[in-house]
Amino acid sequence: MQITINGKPEEMQAGTVMDVLKQKDIDPHMVAVELNTQIVERDRLDTTNVQEGDKVEFLFYMGGGA
Amino acid sequence: MSFTEEQITRYSRHILLPEVGGKGQKKIARAKVFVVGAGGLGSPVALYLAAAGVGTIGLIDSDVVDRSNLQRQVLHHTPDVGRSKVQSAKEKIFLLNPDVNVETYEDRFTASNAMDYIAPYDVVIDGVDTFPAKFLINDACYFADKPLVHGGILRFEGRVFSIVPGQSACYRCIFQHPPPPGLVPSCQEAGIIGVVAGIIGTIQATEALKLILGIGDPLTDRILDFDARKTAFREIRTKRNPRCPLCGDHPDITELFEHEQEACQLQAPGALGLS
Q1: ipTM value
Q2: How many CB atoms lie within 10 A of CB B123?
């Protein structure tokens, strides 16, 4: 299926948000995930399915400021 | 309140703008902005808000200036090394614009003092460099109903967005809790290209002025991520999360607290590859 990740179209195997994270080799503890502008909390990553055409955004933690 | 001839000249390029004018400049002069952290983000925020004529700028920071700060913390100059950051900041702001009343607090921002510190202010700016402090500022602004301009930076990247409590997505709507300790590096560990602090900080100052003036479209329910390597911005549309542990429908955070500080792992000088 084709989905959009961080604004770029990408080909991914169908599955859950967690499956997409695994395919992208991203540790789920390092990001917040948004699916079609809705935040998917960590406890729902492996029960939320990603569909063809979905828009996924990964927001990595950024803790600096000083 | 009326402006002197000198002030009219000083703020003339603002007053020329139909969206600001004399009326808007008076709003700026009456505004009180609280900046948490007088470092990488706090420097450009405080300098630009001072230049703009913000009436009161509150600055809290318990640190002294370190030589490694000078690469990005433009409030502080070489002779300030070893001096209190808030004192150094106050002097620079006075030199830039003596109209500004600068309130300085050489203190840590904690769960027990946060509400008292932010109470007199109209807008709060996040310029801190730890996750516990970022979550604490978010929560305090929610409980005190104060607009907050969040900022975060790391390596070549930065993030900024505004939060109007109860109306737009808060930091916890996106990131419910801090990352597990040790997983996400700090700037101290991973580095930061100094100018990114300037870019994100000046956007924070812009958003604070817009909130004060009530003009334009605030950076709410939109997260702006910047990547200096690509010189690219990414705007992530978002909205309040009904499952947010703070501002959601069934919150489990009902009072201020501090997440535990991540263990600070200082790199040995050899790790920088310089020695």
Answers
A1: 0.93
A2: 25
B174 and A39 in contact by Cβ < 8 A? yes
* Predicted structure pTM score: 0.94
Least confident of A40-44, B27-31, B148-152, B168-172: A40-44
CA distance B180 to B89: 33
Taking domain A2-60, whether its CATH number is 3.10.180.10 is answered by no
How far apart, in whole angstroms, are the C-alpha atoms of residue A17 and residue A46? 6
Q: Is residue B11 part of a domain?
A: no
Nearest-CB residue to B173 (from A30, A39, A66) = A39
Distance CA B226, CA B209 (A): 20
| Torsions phi, psi for B196 (to 5 deg) | -60, -35
Q: Do A64 and B154 touch (CB under 8 A)?
A: yes
By C-alpha distance, the chain B residue nearest A29 is: B179
